[in-house]
Amino acid sequence: MILDSPEASDALGRRLADVVQPGDVVALSGPLGAGKTSIARGLLSALGLAGEAPSPSFAIVQPYDPPEVRLPVLHVDLYRIEDDHELDELGLDDARHDAVIVVEWPERVDNNYWHDALWLTLEMQPDGTRALTARVPQAWKGRWPLT
């Protein structure tokens, strides 16, 4: 899939909001500026968040709960995580049963941690577009690709 603008990344996030459910993990991988946060913001907006979602770069985990959004969401940014053991302190294992987890920089920890995630990888192209590839786990069959 090709995303030709920040608006296209936002629109992808909005379409994801139609199919996510508690327990889902959406892993957003790609270099700085690739559109990971735009996808997350589109999803949060479509779930009802008023205003623009801040990047969780410094907080690491930014929670959103009803009535602010339709479903509980944890927006996670692992850019500053150095070690898999730091994840234990974040409490994501407990939260993932009740919330949608949208994680940026998932590759900063062992890939097995996100084995059941819808893994979206963004690559910047020479023409400024983003090529998106998806690794789709069994739990997402029938929900991906988005139409």
From TrEMBL:
Protein name: tRNA threonylcarbamoyladenosine biosynthesis protein TsaE
GO MF entry, a single one: ATP binding
Segments crossing the lipid bilayer: none
Keywords: ATP-binding, Cytoplasm, Magnesium, Metal-binding, Nucleotide-binding, tRNA processing
UniProt cross-references to InterPro entries, sorted A to Z: P-loop_NTPase, T6A_TsaE
Gene name, Swiss-Prot/TrEMBL: tsaE
Provenance organism: Stakelama marina
Pfam families, sorted: TsaE
Top-level taxon of the source organism: Bacteria
GO cellular component entries: cytoplasm
GO biological process: tRNA threonylcarbamoyladenosine modification
Entry's localization field: Cytoplasm
UniProt family annotation: Belongs to the TsaE family.
